[in-house]
Amino acid sequence: MTITEVSKKFDLSQDTLRYYERIGLIPSVNRNKGGIRDYTDEDLKWIEFIKCMRGAGLPIEVLIEYVTLFQQGDATTQARKELLIEQRQQLIARMEDIKKTLELLNYKIESYENSVAIIEKDLKR
Amino acid sequence: MTITEVSKKFDLSQDTLRYYERIGLIPSVNRNKGGIRDYTDEDLKWIEFIKCMRGAGLPIEVLIEYVTLFQQGDATTQARKELLIEQRQQLIARMEDIKKTLELLNYKIESYENSVAIIEKDLKR
DNA sequence: ATAACACTTAGAGTTAACTCCAAGTCAAGA
DNA sequence: TCTTGACTTGGAGTTAACTCTAAGTGTTAT
Predict the structure, then answer these.
(1) Cys bridge to A69: A6, A27, A76, B124, which one at CB 3.0-4.6 A?
(2) Distance, Å, B35 CA → D13 C1'
(3) How many domains in chain B?
């Protein structure tokens, strides 16, 4: 699969895909005779995983570490697991923040609804 | 209340507090005779609100717009309400992303648990 | 064969959100 | 009086995560 196809499939710019590869956020992609990237299914799996994690806000640095550990083989499974558990904790905390903020937003929006209602009542007088 | 006290109360650096004021993210704070900031309860309310919103990731630009609208008075209540509704939408979307990612993380962690279990079984042979 | 186009690399530039720094002011204590 | 320390301002520097540019190569359509 070419970079153009991958870019469309995942809605990531070609620049971003090359950048991710350059910094080691995805394992390096094979080139064909002409030196052009040819993504394998394995590569696509990585991209999907990384895109999901980035979408939730996991830092690139942490994800690079995960990929690096992965490439070091079976000796690092424990470390990888711990890394994921740590990130899960962070995500749960983020979710709590968002929930709290959503409640406050709901409350504020409701009060705006009430005050708008009052203004409208005023207009009808 | 002095900037030191506010900084401690909300766990925001003095630099951040001054920065927020400078860019109009909080309405400007009164100074005493010596030119030193003296935060009112009203100011604290704003800081608490902004801190909550920033904690959930609302962009500074949007929050500045909200503060600006607020300072323009009652004519902007409708616009402010719409702004909050829009941001609520965004937050709900963020939350969905995080939920999806949490599920994937849970699944991955579980598989690491299983593979570790297998390794341990191997060791016992 | 030549033009058009997608691709390559290395490296510079951008954006958001701080964070730090320098130079200066002012009140309070030794 | 002198020094200490918290504060002031304006502006420069930093970090993360892209995003863009330039210069060059290789494949395809006319």
Answers:
(1) A76
(2) 27
(3) 2
